[in-house]
Amino acid sequence: GSGGGDDATEEEQTLSVFAAASLTDSFEDLAGEFEEQHPGVDVELNFAGSSTLVTQLQDGAPADVFASADEANMDKAVDAGLVNGEPSIFATNLLTIAVPAGNPAGITSFEDLAGEGVNVVVCEQRVPCGAATERIEEITGTTLSPVSEESAVTDVMGKVTSGQADAGVVYKTDVTAAGDAVEEVEIAQTEEAINRYPIAALESSADADLAREFIDFIQGSRGQERLAEEGFGAP
Amino acid sequence: MSLTFRARIPEREVEAEFELGQGRTLGITGPNGAGKSTILGVLAGLLIPASGRGTVGGRVLFDLDDAGRGTWVPPHRRGVTLMAQRPLLFPHLTVLENVAFAPRSRGLGRSAARDKAMQWLEDLSATRFADRRPEALSGGQAQRVALARALAAEPEVLLLDEPLAPVDAGGKTELRELLVRVLAGRTAVVVSHDPQDVGELAQEVLELGGR
Amino acid sequence: MSLTFRARIPEREVEAEFELGQGRTLGITGPNGAGKSTILGVLAGLLIPASGRGTVGGRVLFDLDDAGRGTWVPPHRRGVTLMAQRPLLFPHLTVLENVAFAPRSRGLGRSAARDKAMQWLEDLSATRFADRRPEALSGGQAQRVALARALAAEPEVLLLDEPLAPVDAGGKTELRELLVRVLAGRTAVVVSHDPQDVGELAQEVLELGGR
Amino acid sequence: MLLRVDLSSFWGLITSESSLAALWLSLRTAATSTVLCVLLGTPLALVLARSSFPGQRFLRSLILLPLVLPPVVGGIALLHVYGRAGLLGQHLEVMGLSIAFTTTAVVIAQTFVSLPFLVVGLEGALRSAGTQYEGLAATLGAGPGTVLRRITLPLVLPGLASGAVLAFARSLGEFGATLTFAGSLQGVTRTLPLEIYLQRETDPDAAVALSLVLVAVAIAVVGLSAPRARAAARGVR
Amino acid sequence: MLLRVDLSSFWGLITSESSLAALWLSLRTAATSTVLCVLLGTPLALVLARSSFPGQRFLRSLILLPLVLPPVVGGIALLHVYGRAGLLGQHLEVMGLSIAFTTTAVVIAQTFVSLPFLVVGLEGALRSAGTQYEGLAATLGAGPGTVLRRITLPLVLPGLASGAVLAFARSLGEFGATLTFAGSLQGVTRTLPLEIYLQRETDPDAAVALSLVLVAVAIAVVGLSAPRARAAARGVR
Ligand SMILES: Nc1ncnc2c1ncn2[C@@H]1O[C@H](COP(=O)(O)OP(=O)(O)OP(=O)(O)O)[C@@H](O)[C@H]1O
Ligand SMILES: Nc1ncnc2c1ncn2[C@@H]1O[C@H](COP(=O)(O)OP(=O)(O)OP(=O)(O)O)[C@@H](O)[C@H]1O
Ligand code: MOO
Ligand SMILES: [Mg+2]
Ligand SMILES: [Mg+2]
């Protein structure tokens, strides 16, 4: 454990965090700060798509903390008995429309996406952002006929930043990360399809206290501040 | 077609010069490594000499100055056919297809080329191999087929590199007679170590010095 | 080592039988395709006959019944070395390395094997090629090197398939004298179309019928 | 892997509309890409093996590039060339040709990643076949075209065939470049690997079942087209 | 692509700690995998090219499988074998060896996807080299080991080398199987392609810059090891 250490030689300790790829930048910074506050602790970050991470955990990957980009994947981890205690929501993400710089197709609302000749790209309904997009379609009574239904938000963004698509339905964090390459067109009804990011300590953790401390740090003011910079919403 | 030849291939220490009248056969002899195959290679267009000049009936085959610049006609436009020292039968073609290769390349139709090839195989007593692959031939059998393939090209100039070396004693006599007939009136160069070949086939002889 | 041989290779319509006393040389002659190379291949262990039996000094090389079952000793344990009809020099080795191959395989050290190879090249007047690659040799030069490589193996039984075919006239006389010396006291089989080869090298002759 | 899928649901799954559409699309596009690889790769291999010119090494490296590029990066590179705003793509766009999000884009992505397989295999075969037969054929009066058609290509046919099989297999498994460059729409651009990837999000077992289908198709193609085993070492002439 | 990255930030980016760690890890693991491919692939290619036995076609298909598997599926398959609960993994676990999510896992993933390249290239070279020289060497008294070492392998060295280059290139670009099977831990399992993938999530331009590094390394390796161009067709003996 982390206890028992006097001011004598610090015991080297590793905290392994499995986090959704969309958290890369924020978690790398936060992990560095956490290490500074906890001398002797080395935070190892493993980033991948949330479903990949669950697969890895199921197959016995050694980890202390799991931060998922959606509740469905966290549920899978819970069902598999991997989680210690209750997951908690530490961030939210809202859908928005990304258009290439200059907005060539003149998109102003979600409904515009259904217009003639608009190349729109969305996530497929089997992945979280696709499910959220479908909910917005229902609420607005709009039926999109996308030219592509991607398996990850990153791939939707790729189509927009490269100008292949006239518009893509993505998360606010993605628009923030892309900087000048894209412009944002807000979705009025976006609050109806909120995406929640849960975090949890894992059964396989060798040091439940330290895992807890890391989760608290992410949910604390410094963690929330850094996440907000990336475009995440508060829980 | 009369033939003139002069070439220098210094990497192989080979240098030679000769002239040959229309319809005549030149026999080249000389020790191993003297440059016999090299000369045939240059004539056929498979080797580029450092310098030299070759003509057939006044038509230039190659004409390269000491810096290696000048004319050089590619092999398929020379009207010169080589039977190399090794049979080099095309391994993916049957014996008949090998012999029919040149007639086909000259534009003959499939069955006309086959007929022609069959005739040449008959002349060389090799019809019974017609459908075999080259890999299933004995050394002497392969040589006969290679000879048939070169003859079937009916070129202006025929180059034969030790055509009868692996042929059996009886076959040598038979094939020599055939070659006498075939080479009559045709310009040809025959390389051989066998004085009898040279004596019976060639009207002129080039004796290369050896090392 | 005395040699006995009896084999049937029906795919090639070859069937032969002979015995040879210790230290003697058998000359095999016969028309192209008679089966001369085939017999050497079976003796060397590169071809498996349908049936037959071969022994060297009483030791069995192969002994296969009509169903093809029985003993078959692999080539490297026969003490039989073949010089094939084509030189087949190892293309990735220099001439010297080619000739040193057998001594090295017999366990000689690198420099001892080199010395031995150099001696054989000297006997065959081929030392000046020692450092060349086989591709840079003329037909007759390659043949000399192949002969040197086979002789350097100093096997119990030596098989030579037309050893002098592409060699020049002067070389033939020189090499025949060398072979007479080398084969003295060694059991050997020599295939040749040249009656002079057979006459001077062989004490016994097997004349194969042709087709 | 087999243990994780029970048979009845397996059959239902692989015959579902989306699976069949993906399988059919994969087979069609992989076959087309293979043909394209042969048509483009053969001249390239000939140039690499039969001529020497300055910049040849660089050309070879360029052709082999897709091998080492992570497919996603390859897809990005394709976007920069053929995309709407790409080097070539913007001119095509003007001509009214839009490649983005079409099956054509899938074929381009697959051809891009598979071409090196064909070129490398064929170049090796051409080099080891050597030029002796070609030279001899020329002295028999055959021009370059005839030599190519009747000597060179038949001699390297085994190398060409094994290269084509590799290219087909690689096209069939192509995922990253297709996803990045062509998108993912059922029946149009969503090939079997993309379908598998999507299935994995919701039903990993189903993804495994679909993978088995892909594996079966691949084994069938590769197995059937394998070079016929030659009889063991026989014959020295 | 070049246009999107300005040079000063480019340099800072590719010399950042995480980039250098990823590059170094990539080079180390790709080199190790290539060595493993040669060690494993050479006997396999020999068995495929030089013997014939029932099930040979099946064995070949099996070896070629990773070619056609989308790498992610390959990664899942590896987890099922070497993972903690996997067929082999559970026994290794008992012995105190845990492979998943270590650098060893990266090497296994790369070897798995790269092996077919080596085997296919080498098998083709072995077949076209034929067995004549081997037979002749045996009659000169060389046993199977000597023949293999001094004749067979040197004769197919160009094929072996080009196979090894392909395997190295493929290992360097490996992404999907590594991510799934080995995870993405800086300095341990996060190779350059994984680093690029992560960068793309947050900074697409940086991803392009890193891709250029990968491309440069690949061009260097492939270009330098290319077969020396032979002089144009010369010589018939
Ligand atoms: N690539 C090469 N191919 C053939 N010979 C070469 C090569 N390079 C150098 N040479 C040398 O060139 C010289 C001439 O060789 P060439 O083959 O013309 O001889 P040759 O008269 O045909 O001999 P042989 O009667 O043995 O066939 C020889 O000394 C040979 O060693
Ligand atoms: N794979 C093969 N290799 C060689 N010969 C074969 C093969 N298959 C069948 N044969 C036939 O076997 C017979 C014997 O051939 P072999 O090579 O032993 O003849 P040879 O007596 O050595 O003739 P040559 O004097 O022409 O060398 C020939 O009729 C040949 O056509
Ligand atoms: O990295 Mo995620 O789990 O696709 O947002
Ligand atoms: Mg010669
Ligand atoms: Mg013979």
UniProtKB/TrEMBL annotation, chains B, C:
The region annotated as signal peptide is none
Pfam families reported for this sequence = ABC_tran
**Does the keyword Chloroplast feature in the UniProt annotation?**
no
Determine if Lipid biosynthesis is one of this entry's keywords: no
Q: Which Gene3D superfamilies match?
A: P-loop containing nucleotide triphosphate hydrolases
Domain (ABC transporter): residue spans on this chain: 1-210
| One function term, GO molecular function aspect | ATP binding
Q: Which UniProt keywords apply?
A: ATP-binding, Nucleotide-binding
Output the PANTHER family linked to this UniProt entry.
ABC TRANSPORTER I FAMILY MEMBER 10 (PTHR43514), SULFATE_THIOSULFATE IMPORT ATP-BINDING PROTEIN CYSA (PTHR43514:SF1)
Return the protein name: ATP-binding cassette domain-containing protein
UniProtKB/TrEMBL annotation, chains D, E:
Q: According to its UniProt record, which protein family does this protein belong to?
A: Belongs to the binding-protein-dependent transport system permease family. CysTW subfamily.
Q: What is the lineage of its organism?
A: Bacteria, Bacillati, Actinomycetota, Actinomycetes, Micrococcales
According to UniProt, the name of this protein is Molybdenum transport system permease
Q: Where in the cell is it found?
A: Cell membrane
Q: Could you tell me the gene encoding this protein?
A: modB
Q: Where is the signal peptide?
A: none
Swiss-Prot/TrEMBL keywords: Cell membrane, Membrane, Molybdenum, Transmembrane, Transmembrane helix, Transport
Q: Which GO terms describe its molecular function?
A: molybdate ion transmembrane transporter activity
Instruction: Respond yes or no to whether keyword Acetylation is given for this record.
Output: no
**Alphabetized InterPro entries for the sequence:** MetI-like, MetI-like_sf, ModB_ABC, NifC_ABC_porter
Which organism is this protein's natural source? Answer: Kocuria coralli
Mind telling me which NCBIfam families this protein's record contains?
Mo_ABC_porter (TIGR01581), modB_ABC (TIGR02141)
Q: Name one Pfam family in it.
A: BPD_transp_1
TM ranges = 20-49, 61-82, 94-120, 151-169, 206-227
Q: Where is the ABC transmembrane type-1 domain?
A: 23-225
UniProt membrane topology term: Multi-pass membrane protein
Biological function: Part of the binding-protein-dependent transport system for molybdenum; probably responsible for the translocation of the substrate across the membrane.
**Example of a GO cellular component annotation carried by this entry:** plasma membrane
